[in-house]
Amino acid sequence: MTGRNELLAALRAGCDGDQPWDVVVVGGGATGLGCAVDAASRGYSTLLLEAHDFAKGTSSRATKLVHGGVRYLAQGNLSLVREALAERAVLLANAPHQVRPLRFVVPTYRWHQMPMLGAGLGFYDLLAGRHSLGRSRVLGRAATCDALPGVRPGGLLGGIAYWDAQFDDAGLAIALARTAEDLDALPLNYMAVEGLAKSDGRISGVAARDVETGERHQVPARSVINATGVWADGLRQMDRPGKAGLIRPSQGVHLVVDADFLPGSDALLVPDTEDGRVLFVIPWFGKLVIGTTDTPRDELPLEPRALDAEIDFILDTASRYLARAPRREDVRSVFAGLRPLVGGAGGGAGVTSGLSREHLVEVSDSGLVTITGGKWTTYRRMAIDAVDVAARAGNLAQRMSGTLRQRLHGAGLGDARGRLARAQAGPDEDGIRLAVEAEYARSVEDVLARRYRTLFLDAASACAEAPQVARTMAAMLGRDRTWVDGQVAAFEALAQGYRVLGDASAGTRLQPANQ
Q: What is the per-residue DSSP string for 333-359?
């Protein structure tokens, strides 16, 4: 692992040298990190620039699933399901420390559901083929209660069990950053791209600013990949002012409650909710994650906030399936993320649940490559497609991706259960040191939100841990008391947005997205 000072020195040397980078990736979420790993695996000189922290945006706010997508199966999108199931197998092989199989149980309360779900999930098994994690099977009432010891028993007829996988999204992002560096790429967080350079009308680099110091860099590049997710239209419009937007943002919200609402190791799936989605109740790091929603949004805040109607919708839906219904005061943390759905030129508000979760690669007249859409499970395929296009746009030597069997950094250091134990123990001094020295953490938020998931698991506990994290980091980074106080205050203000307080506003209701 190279420290930030060494990474910055390498950036300056590259900017002052005679040769431009082959590939500059803008955006350090799942897609951008995947592009950096893919480009470096082909031997291209690669630089990744992220304005905030790796996975700060959408990529740390997922439903924590690596899956084919039973919902997409119901929509008839078989190609996406088949591709995602194949990529699920690749992730399980290449990142066993971040990804693990998980069994899901769908409780049934109507007789007609059983044959429909059985047929659908049987077809899911068929599409998985040799990548199957285990066959789906019908469960009787008693077996369903055993698998889901917090399920509502009244009217329960039985259930269907099937297999998918879960992961730590932010943890996988850091593993990708480390893997990119292992392959001689240069990943830099807190390095904002503020402009594009052109030569004879073609993209020739980017203008970047170090967020911490204000130092500016003119970065030469043969090709530039715009992997900024839901904010991709901003860079597209830097390239061509006034260009119509591609992105139709959709907000997904998740609530975190204590595990005793649904003890056990299996997840619960609600197959059909009022807003046209499925709802998951998933064991994760000793808690339960419940979600998600699909709410069209016009604004693009870096820290999206859950609407009262979204919180109430999740709690109301969960109460129909859990014997003990979680209330607002039971919520330990609430987090929201924005999906970069592809809605066609012009974008605009409206229904988002029916928009494609597939990805799109666009090349502008000047050669800017934009990759958007998709989901975590298929990040590697998205990266392959984007780098293929970027290589052509930058007149690079054509080389094959090397990521199919590329084990991600840390894959030999234990399985996902080891990371679970670390996360549940909370950040001690050694863990904070590791986060700073080996995982690019630069702030208290980086440590408590993404190197450890404390903010996402229990916002109040995260606030209690913030002062010690700040003091430990300050000693390592040479910061003073003013920095410590500022970090703690900023984190406490951030954490307020992850807490559910008070009653919902009267009359709020989440508009079903399929109406």
A: EEEEEEEEEE--TT--SS--TTS--SE
Mean pLDDT calculated for residue range 81-109 = 96
Distance of alpha carbon 107 from alpha carbon 270, whole angstroms: 8
Distance, in Å, from the CA atom of 423 to the CA atom of 408, rounded to the nearest integer, reads 19
- In order, the DSSP letters of 293-339 are --EE-S---SS----HHHHHHHHHHHHTTBSS---GGG-SEEEEEEE
Instruction: Say if CB 151 and CB 263 are below 8 A apart.
Output: no
pLDDT recorded at residue 72? 82
Q: Reduced to 3 states, what is the DSSP secondary structure of residue 370? A: strand
Average pLDDT over residues 131-143: 96
Q: What tokens does 501 get?
A: 């307080």
Identity of the amino acid at 164: D
| Domain extents in the chain | 4-58+171-246+343-393, 424-496
Q: What is the DSSP letter of 503?
A: P
Q: How far is residue 110's CA from residue 355's CA, in Å, rounded to a whole number?
A: 29
Instruction: State the Cα–Cα distance between residues 12 and 6, nearest whole angstrom.
Output: 10
Looking at every residue in the chain, the average pLDDT score rounds to 92
Which residue has 């409206």 as its token pair?
A: 350
**Contact (Cβ atoms closer than 8 angstroms) between residue 258 and residue 288:** yes
Q: Which residues contact 107 (CB under 8 A, 6 or more apart)?
A: 144, 148, 151, 152, 156, 158, 159, 268, 321
**Residue 177 to residues 131, 235, 421, Cα–Cα distance (Å):** 27, 22, 22
SS3 labels along 60-72? HCCCCEECCCHHH
Phi-psi bin for 188: left (phi > 0), alpha (psi -120 to 50), beta?
beta
Query: Measured between alpha carbons, how far is 388 from 41 in angstroms, rounded to an integer?
Result: 12
Give the right CATH number for 4-58+171-246+343-393 from 2.40.50.140, 3.40.50.300, 3.50.50.60, 3.30.360.10: 3.50.50.60
What pLDDT, in 10s, does the model give residues 14-71?
A: 999 999 999 999 999 999 999 999 999 999 999 999 999 999 999 999 999 999 988 8
Q: Which tokens belong to 163?
A: 């297999």
The DSSP result for 131-142, as a single string, is G-SS--EEE-HH
The length of the chain in residues reads 515
Return the closest-CA partner of residue 253 out of 301, 308, 179, 329.
308
| Cα–Cα distance for residue pair 225/386, rounded to 1 Å | 7
**Cβ-proximal residues to 17 (8 Å cutoff; 6+ apart), any chain:** none
